[in-house]
């Protein structure tokens, strides 16, 4: 069984370099992983989904350098 870890917004921001507003902006655009409701106002993100987003950003950069 795959182990999934949930991370809170400060860790998401630390991993991605995005601000809180940047995370929510990209979520609204549909280009960042959706949050997971934890109850009340608490939310978190699936760490592996955030890691995949980071990996994709790096690959997009690399693809542009190779193509350019």
How would you sum up this structure, described in words?
There is one protein chain. With 68 residues, the protein is of the alpha+beta class. Helices cover 56% and strands 16% of the residues. The chain has one domain (6-67): Recoverin, domain 1. Strands 1-3-2 form a 3-stranded antiparallel β-sheet. It has helices at residues 9-16, 20-28, 47-67, and strands spanning 6-7, 36-39, 42-46. A hairpin with a 2-residue loop joins strand 2 and strand 3.
Which structural traits does this protein have?
56% helix; alpha+beta; Recoverin, domain 1; 68 residues; 3-stranded antiparallel sheet
Report the oligomer.
single chain
Q: Fraction of residues in helices?
A: 55-70%
Computed Rg: 13 Å
| Overall mean confidence score, pLDDT | 92
Number of domain modules: 1
């Amino acid at each position: 069984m795959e182990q999934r870890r949930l991370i809170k917004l400060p860790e998401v921001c630390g991993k991605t370099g995005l601000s809180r507003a940047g995370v929510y902006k990209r979520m609204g655009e549909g280009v960042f992983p959706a949050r997971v409701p934890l109850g009340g106002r608490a939310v978190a993100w699936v760490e592996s989904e955030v890691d995949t987003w980071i990996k994709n950003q790096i690959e997009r950069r690399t693809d542009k350098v190779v193509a350019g």
